[in-house]
Amino acid sequence: MLFSRFNSHLPTPEEALEGRPERAFTVPARHTVLGNPLLGPYPDGLETADFGLGCFWGAERKFWQAEGVWTTLVGYQGGHTPHPTYEEVCSGHTGHTEAVRVVYDPAVVPYTSLLKLFWESHDPTQGFRQGNDVGTQYRSAIYTHSPAQQQAAEASRDAYRTVLHHSGYADITTEILPADSRPFYPAEGYHQQYLDKNPAGYCGIGGTGVKLSAPSETNWGRSCPTGIAPAPDVTEQ
Fold first, then answer.
1. How far is residue 197's CA from residue 191's CA, in Å, rounded to a whole number?
2. Of 55, 105, 111, 198, whose CA is between 20 and 30 Å from 216?
């Protein structure tokens, strides 16, 4: 990791690295596990979701294992520098977080199920870190592709915040923002499906043990209770 003050402070657009007009590297054509194209074109009827939950090696594996996911790829999102490299992102001078793009069939796996997997796979209360991984590039984030995704993400955050508070955790620091003004820049080829190529490689992804209830439109932000379920060893006060 290239340490700098921007590991604890997001750079402004003026402070960010200049970047470049196009990628400085190639991206593999197909997913090594699912066999489908990484960059598209994607079949009609599929939808896209973007998540940041710490080191993207382990995060990507969480999603490619989910039923109904057509392809996944890792990249950089939420920053200012166009077409950054991994080294630039790790410097903290681009403003990006490590992200996973998930292309999925909503008829098989609804967006709410992906949100449940997202929340339960990391600790969303840690700010600019995830476990031992420290830096702005490890912050928790959801970048939404429609008003419906934005509403569902915010409702799931509100539900999960309640049970996390009951379980002794601090407030959620996850940023939930539209993806349309926050381009997803694919990462270098060696990062794509890293844990398929290196099964014993570093993962770094671990949840809090606190569970979110089975997702549905009726219990996330619309009815009582709030759609949450504490971990089995949690005693509510």
1. 9
2. 55
- Exactly one of 55, 90, 203, 224 is catalytic; name it: 55
What amino acid occupies position 205? I
Give the closest residue to 57 by CA, choosing from 220, 194, 196.
194
How many other β-carbons are positioned within 10 Å of the β-carbon of residue 223? 11
Helices (H), 12-170: 56-64, 86-90, 111-120, 147-166
- 112: Cα separation from own chain's centroid: 14
- 194-215 burial, b at 16+ Cβ within 10 Å, e below that, comes to bbbeeeeeebbbebbebbbbeb
- What is the pLDDT, as a whole number, of residue 194? 98
Closest by Cα among 171, 152, 125 to 49: 152
Q: Which helix (H) or strand (E) holds 211?
A: strand 211-212
Instruction: Return d(Cα 145, Cα 135) in angstroms, integer.
Output: 26
Q: Are 76 and 98 in contact (CB under 8 A)?
A: yes
Q: What is the pLDDT of residues 50-98, one digit of tens each?
A: 999 999 999 999 999 999 999 999 999 999 999 999 999 999 999 999 9
Q: Write out residues in the chain with pLDDT < 70, as ranges.
A: 1-6, 215-237
For this structure, is 224 an active site residue? no
Domains along the chain with CATH numbers = 50-197 (3.30.1060.10)
